[in-house]
Design brief:
The protein is of the alpha/beta class and 314 residues long. Helix content is 32%, strand content 18%. It has one domain: Metallo-dependent phosphatases (Purple Acid Phosphatase, chain A, domain 2, 4-Layer Sandwich), CATH 3.60.21.10.
Amino acid sequence: MDRSLTSPDDLAEEALKVGPEEFIGLIEDVGRILLDEARGISRGDGFKVVGRLVYLPTSGEAFVIGDLHGDLKSLTLILRESGLPGRLLRENVYLIFLGDYGDRGLFSPEVYYVVLTLKRMFPKRVVLLRGNHEGPRDLLAHPHDLPYYLEKKFQGSGREIYGRLTELFDYLHLAVLVEGRYVMLHGGVPSEAENVDDVAYAHLKHPEESHLEEILWSDPVEGVRGTLFSPRGAGRLFGPDVTERFLKIVGARLLIRGHEPSEEGFKMNHSGKVLTLFSRRGPPYYNSAGAYLHLDLSEEVEEPKEIIRRVHKF
């Protein structure tokens, strides 16, 4: 069977049946792909990586998926509704995940299986960003229940698989930049960033500088200037002026991020310059809808609020 033509339902079925050895092999394969990208070895079709920053071209189209937290049903629905993975066979079509693939959801191992399989099938089309639930040990979300789900599925091998996954987390990308248009990351703005390299190499500057922590953990708020302490215990709450400054630094018009549950699956902040996507439904977040984004990368961003017409709710 041609793996490139595997349907979303077939991928989900495979995920439910996968054994520990196959899962470990998948992690190893994707680890090699990400390591090559980090070294600047794997590039093409407009896909370029500098540090942990991915540059995409201002042409083609992109599908953007927010937090999944082990919701295999929502992931399968999104892939089916959007015509993925088949559409990734076309030139300049990209699939971007904003992080937080597991934790808080019964099918966390299965979601990782599907996401990593898509990366292995389409290494130059799929971008995997790092979320706070894929963070380094000193920034990892608590409680962290992924080990429990892995042990439940892979009895006796869960601990080994968890160790291999956490090693893989260190190679996940931190941001995507479509110059002049969009910047995408998991959480929020690195408020003290002075240039694009502070984003691209945030992982190397951690913990001496706060860039990585804020990229993974921060949230936008209205009615404040600068940043405030976050009730999450990590990251910061940042105001519209911080967003404006960051967008100028990276040369983008709109910030697209995940991290924050949204009742309708998405929300806008900072006069439409920040779009939050949350792509899972139901408990423990109890949002009534999930959402994903379908972008025309060649389209100029004249009015950021117009991005709403590109949001697909489900």
